[in-house]
Amino acid sequence: MLEARNITKSYTLPGQQAIPILRGINLLIGEGEMVTIVGASGSGKTTLLNVLGTLDTPDSGEILFDKEQLFRDKKYTLSPKALAKFRNQKIGFVFQFHHLLSDFTAIENVAMPEFIATGKLPPAKKRAAELLESLGLSERLDHLPSELSGGEQQRVAIARALMNRPKLVLADEPSGNLDSKNSRMLYELMAKLSKERKTSFIIVTHNEEYAALSDRCLHMQDGLLHAGFEAVM
Ligand SMILES: Nc1ncnc2c1ncn2[C@@H]1O[C@H](COP(=O)(O)OP(=O)(O)O)[C@@H](O)[C@H]1O
Ligand SMILES: [Mg+2]
């Protein structure tokens, strides 16, 4: 589904030498596979997710999505406009802090990606309601983010990420803000969704216990990914 080949990226601060962050990442993600990435703070996990999500440009390497070249020879194969459309249609993002729009209700937040893509609000809201109901939030459709618990906010963020039926969801420490009970529920939910919907998930987490709920866990160290374990499922 997603393939990254020999991805490198370094950052250069003014007047300093370039610091390599990703030193040759190779990654192959299957359809419906849930992969977790653990690693020390500053090891480059967020940078990698941003690169895989085409939010950040690597220095070199290749990215293939559904067998199509997305990045090679140091540039994207799509125009910036086409790349933005690709991202809206194929990839869902979940961040550590939910990043919901505070002036919009749960259903409006979830409807937003489809509304942006189609310009049609009623069908977007209908599907948003269905998604929220399937995530156990049928009583919370018209609540503002500030009227939801942390766990509910992250479930709304997952519903929003799933709205355009993406092939891939990228989640950066999605439970960073939650207690252990809600964190576990969130990981169980993502594991269920990856299998039911054949959506691939790449999730950065600091918690190896939750990583064990995934199909495969990878360790980020010194700018490289190392195999963790194959979870028995
Ligand atoms: N925009 C940037 N400019 C310069 N350095 C950056 C930038 N973004 C991240 N870094 C550096 O890259 C390293 C990896 O960061 P990050 O990917 O956020 O790590 P992680 O998510 O694993 O904690 C850190 O040392 C960080 O300071
Ligand atoms: Mg990070």
Automatic annotation (TrEMBL):
Residues 2-233 form the ABC transporter domain. One of its GO terms (cellular component) is plasma membrane. Keywords: ATP-binding, Nucleotide-binding, Transport. GO terms for molecular function: ATP binding; ATP hydrolysis activity; transmembrane transporter activity. It holds the Pfam family ABC_tran. It comes from the Bacteria. PANTHER family: IMPORT ATP-BINDING PROTEIN, LIPOPROTEIN-RELEASING SYSTEM ATP-BINDING PROTEIN LOLD. Belongs to the ABC transporter superfamily. Macrolide exporter (TC 3.A.1.122) family. This is ABC transporter related.
